[in-house]
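Q: Could you predict the 3D structure of site-specific DNA-methyltransferase (cytosine-N(4)-specific)?
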Amino acid sequence: MAGAERLLKESDKFLYGEFWTAKQRQGHPIHHTVSYRASFKPELPSFFMNEFLKKKKSVVYDPFGGRGTTAIQANIEGHVAIHNDIHPLSLFLASARQNVPGLERLIAKVESLDLSTENPEEEGDHLLLPFFHPKTLNEIKNLKKYMQEDDSPEMKFIGLIALSRLHGHSTGFFSVYTFPQVSIPSEAQRKNNIKRNQSPEYREVKPRIIQKMKRDMSVAMPPFYHEFSKENIYSLSSANSVPNIASESVDLIVTSPPFLDKVDYEADNWLRHWFLDISKNSERKLSIFSNLQDWNHFIRSTLKESSRVLKKGAYMVMEVGEVKKGKEILNLDEDVVNMAQGTGLVWSKTYIHTQTFTKLSNCWQVSNNEKGTNSNRCVVLRKAN
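A: Sure. Here are the predicted structure tokens for site-specific DNA-methyltransferase (cytosine-N(4)-specific):
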């Protein structure tokens, strides 16, 4: 094929536009129960489910499950989900919403909890007290004990809501004023308290949980949600090796891998790890890549594993965005297409969704586009028949 003809053919594979809404919090409120960095909007997996799934009760898989957006949206739309992530926090965020109890049952459960029992002082309390009043910390510790003893759907969901209220920037959170999306270091919070002339005040835990639950459950779950969510699979594995997922069992993959050198999930979630008793495991290698070669190697092995679990003719969508590395803009979708060669996945098309910046992207100084727009670059791959 002549060079000009080849370029023309490839240009037909790039679709530009706003394929889903750019507005914030348009999906079901259950998606926004808890914040999680680098999450995509539920409208993204919804768009591709409608695009590539022809029947209900299909199996939708996210190898980098994160907050659980793909899995929850799959259940909302009448599909079974497989949620995988190497981060135990991710599994809790997703599985705590597998079974969503009714609001009245949840409120009754919260009100039945006795959080007043005095706890002895612990070795790590000095790291927590820059965030929490001693009385608030005591209540949080009691809630942790209930979660360790009671694994009912009600208690798991209450724990999820408590996790979302653990630290933030308003009086609706358990902590003094701090950043809601990440757990900043204790010493940094201590300095913030001095700078802001603040100290942790007592904030009662139970009413804040109930207030948040009422907001998140203001829209009823679809009546069929649990019919599909009860068949979900939750897997704790690296995306490039997920042995508990059967070969050729998945109808659609929608996912977004970690980008280059962007998010340290261990450090950013240390308070959440404390609350859930997630220990720092030296064997758990959360993916942070400082160079493109390592990232490409990991993506290639992940695509090969994804090809294994996909049914023949089924699609995989990988959202990779754009990354600024020094003065250079890296379009990672091009690397995904290259890494797919020889894996059994064939490039079908790439959707380049553009939208105006959100408050959160501005906060993190995301500047993916010179014209002030934020792009999702979604590579669509198809498993060969």
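Q: Anything worth pointing out?
A: The radius of gyration is 22 Å.
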